[in-house]
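Protein modeling request. Please complete all fields; requests missing the sequence field cannot be processed.
Requester role: graduate student
Desired output: 3D structure, token encoding
Chains: 1
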Amino acid sequence: MAYASRSGRARVSAKNPQAFGVCDRCGFWNNLVNLNWQHEWRGTTIQNIWIRVCRRCLDVPQEQLRAIQLPADPVTVWQPRVENFADAETDYRSTVPGTIDAITGLPVPSTTLRVTQDCRNRSMQPIGAPDGLDQNAVMPYNGGVQKAFGTPLAILSAVSNGTATIAVTCSQAHGMQTNSQIAVSGLTAANGFYSVTVVSATAFTYTTPGNIAAASLLTYKTRIVTALVGLPYGTPTVPAA
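Delivered output (241 residues):
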């Protein structure tokens, strides 16, 4: 008649006796020499967790318990030569050979930078309202400041006060900041791409190239969405004119 072995998975030898041990996981008897210490990741090192298990119960250390060890920062570059982007991205107007000062009649040296009446360098970068933009082509984008572009705003009113300023009120928070951009369509006037000035969480204004007659500009086709227009270097807002 057969009966269950009292030694479990351990082997008994009269010539080479070995101690028994119980696996801390499955509870089966094994030869103690065949039980292994279980190790796990603790931070950036492997540590013994002080349990002995048989080969069937031995686990590979779980990588999710392993701390991410970042390498050291690279050594800084000594005396770097960084591009002057303010100059490289700005194309200023300058005089050409043979230029004569209209007031003094004296020749002006060539390549002299031309300035405006407020003594600012004249730039060759485009100015005026952006041309060729389509509200339907606004790319959606998730970012840290403005959460999404191309998002329609819930418009309650859009009113002109007789000047170039258009006041817009929303039925819920618009989530924009001053100088955020919008694309406007469906109004009786003042359509296009503009930068806004935030008045409150549900109201903002924007400025058009010219005065608009005082009236409500809202129609059933009105659609205003958040937008992002690439602007010339040093231009914080969409040019109104």
